[in-house]
Write the structure tokens for this entry.
Amino acid sequence: MSSGRVFRFGPNGANSSGHRPTRLFVFLHGCGATAQSMIPIAFRFQARFPSAALVVPSGFDPGARGGVAQDWYPTRGLNADNHGERVAAVLPDVEDLVRREQTNFDVPSGRTVLIGFSQGGTVALEVVKAPGLAGAVVAFSSRFARLPENGSHIASRIHLVHGEFDSVVSRVYAERAARVLAGLHVPVTLDIVEELGHALSHHAISLGSLRLLQGIYEGRRHTIH
């Protein structure tokens, strides 16, 4: 695993331990991007969840593009046959990263959210197939490497946000994933953003944070009797 840089921000954007966070948000950037590219998105989420701590790590494969940009798993020679195994190979490192930050911030898994774009969203969707890591995932312009099988138990809420005209990861992947997750009784939302390609827009980010907020309050309502 690469020891890429990890950016951490306490509640309200302060880099201090003066306020104990009530939630932990981990942001996973897209392929060929950097952790820094996700920091503005992270602060957008924190505006809606001011008590959340933010963790923005760098991808594990810095050599993939020969520069500062990083990937989570190698993309050279990537195809439908090897996609699943390449993603699976990095999942233990992703889980270790999330567990370490949960310990650092003293936030439990149920109050942890993984938020990813493109390749980062795929990693987030795959790592929560094993229950107990995060309470929710917000995946932008992402897809499962392998759709969950019949009988799978996913304990996280899943929020999918996808561009209508995404030519890199077709919206069909998100629509299919939403149907499969609903069939497994996994709480899932799907938003298709009109006239958006493979990108993060102001509206898409707002939708993602809104669905997350709605899901948290929906879950809380179900536990109150």
